[in-house]
Amino acid sequence: MTDMGPLHFCLGIQVFQDPTTKSITLSQRSYIHSILFKYHVDACNGIDTPLPVALKHITPKTHEKTPSYPYTNVLDSIQYLVSCTRLYICFTTNFLSRHMHNPSSLHVMYLKQLLRYLKRTNDLSLTYKYNPSNFFLFVYLTLIGEVILALGNQHQATYFYLLLNSLMAK
């Protein structure tokens, strides 16, 4: 194993580390651009909301013809954004995923609106800043139920350890 220096790019996520402010910023700008380019939405105008304010809940009938649009592929690509840096579009992707196997033309329109929203918010990123007054706790659960705690306030970590062990004992 060799040290290659600070992390700059990993799995479609660009990482910016600022030692002066003790912050780490995660951005998926290039990944969003590749999604927009792949599905030919890169030249569109961006919009301010991922979904319309008044949603229409339509369940397509089984005999209705499904539009020929790579609905599932686009949603799969967007799911990766949700799991990494775009947590706030979770409701939108969940709503659109409900109709993944039989999307109507309205759902395709909603999906294209989400892509246009991603075009508009392409420059947003997720920043983690170090704050010594905040409590950070990392929990690792092993297969046999042991709890290993690290990097936390000792008093709160002990309480959390006891709470977890009492819950697992039941």
TrEMBL record:
Superkingdom as given in the UniProt entry: Eukaryota
Keywords on record: Membrane, Transmembrane, Transmembrane helix
Transmembrane segments: 135-152
Protein name as catalogued: Reverse transcriptase Ty1/copia-type domain-containing protein
Originating organism: Ceratopteris richardii (Triangle waterfern)
